[in-house]
Amino acid sequence: MIDVPTDEAVAAGHVRTQADTGADSVVRVRVDWHEPAEVHPPEEGTWHLLAPVGLSPIEPEPVAQSASVVVADARHHRTFDAAQEELRARVRSLPGALVVAAVTSSREALVWVSVQPPSVWERTGYTVTVRSDEPGPVGLYPSVIYGWIRWWADQQTGFPEGLPKGPLLPRPPSRIDAVISGTYRLTITSADALISSTYTDPHDPTEWH
Predict the structure, then answer these.
(1) Are 69 and 98 a contacting pair, CB within 8 Å?
(2) d(CA 64, CA 54)
(3) CA distances (Å), origin 155, targets 21, 76, 130, 144
(4) Exposed (0-12), middle (13-18) or buried (19+): which is 53, by Cβ within 10 Å?
(5) Of 63, 98, 171, 174, which one has the fewest beta carbons inside 10 Å?
(6) pTM metric for this prediction
(7) Is 195 helix (H, G, I), strand (E, B) or coil?
(8) How many whole angstroms separate alpha carbon 76 and alpha carbon 5?
């Protein structure tokens, strides 16, 4: 079990994700973190950069501009609406990110996925809630969604060459098993369902009350 203190910063780093399906048809995503200074050749799986963003959506850190996954720490917000607005601000300020997350607790994050073609400037996508039964590292939730996106794209062989797959991207499955020094069973739902199904843990100070 990995817990995340409320005041811990979201760490940036190179991330490798590998996804496959088991005999039970459940998608499993393995996530491996590496410090930003390390250079690792992409032997297997997909590599991306996980970049943290501070409190200001106007002046994001330079590394966030080229990161495929950006994570904002929204654990200080006390309401769902405030966390959603935090996420919207990040999406607007980071046009190059494929996945943007607002982590609301050690067990949960709002994850936005871009679906527009690269030539479209206006940000278009959808938001899901990713929830874990056990506390996990804050970067786990968006990285798992990123790994699933790349896995899904690799499975699509019937599209004409050059056709953007983003607009055809479905929502993730309702369950994904994430593996990172242990297995986390993640449930994925539409963010709209969060209002009536928020998980609360009286022993976790980062949960909304």
Answers:
(1) yes
(2) 10
(3) 12, 38, 23, 17
(4) buried
(5) 174
(6) 0.79
(7) helix
(8) 12
